[in-house]
Amino acid sequence: IMSTRSGMSNGGISNNKVKYSRVADSDEGYIDLQFKRSPPKVPYKAIALATFLFLVGSLLIIIGSLLLAGSIEVTHRDRTIPVLIIGILIFLPGFYHLRIAYYASKGYRGYSYDDIPDFDD
Fold it and tell me: What residue ranges are annotated as transmembrane (predicted)?
């Protein structure tokens, strides 16, 4: 490889037109913008679904409890327990996601809207 003394380097680009600036000694290669969090994206559809599950589950738990206690007359007693079980199974995910959404909206540490599955993906 031969070097040229006329200020020309690889490919014939002149070095004397390039301007360089020194990097500060304290610079570690990071900029503050890298670590700035973007505002959280609120998953409205998922929160609406969680609210629906919470309300339907609560209603089924109340109806199942009234059926089991005998406050509502029923001809087939074997159908009261499944209403209660389905109500609990529907209530739990709705309550869980609504709790996360509430704490995330209040800004509690450890809670984020990212913990709620979003349907827009």
Answer: 46-69, 81-102
Per the structure, the complete domain to which residue 98 belongs is given by: 46-109
pTM for this prediction:
0.65
59 is a domain residue: yes
30 burial level (CB within 10 Å; 0-12, 13-18, 19+): exposed
- Token representation of residue 93: 């995910």
In a domain, residue 119? The reply is no
In 3D space, the residue among 90, 71, 68 whose CA is nearest the CA of residue 79 turns out to be 68
Q: What is the pLDDT of residues 56-104, one digit of tens each?
A: 999 999 999 999 888 888 888 888 899 999 999 999 999 999 999 999 9
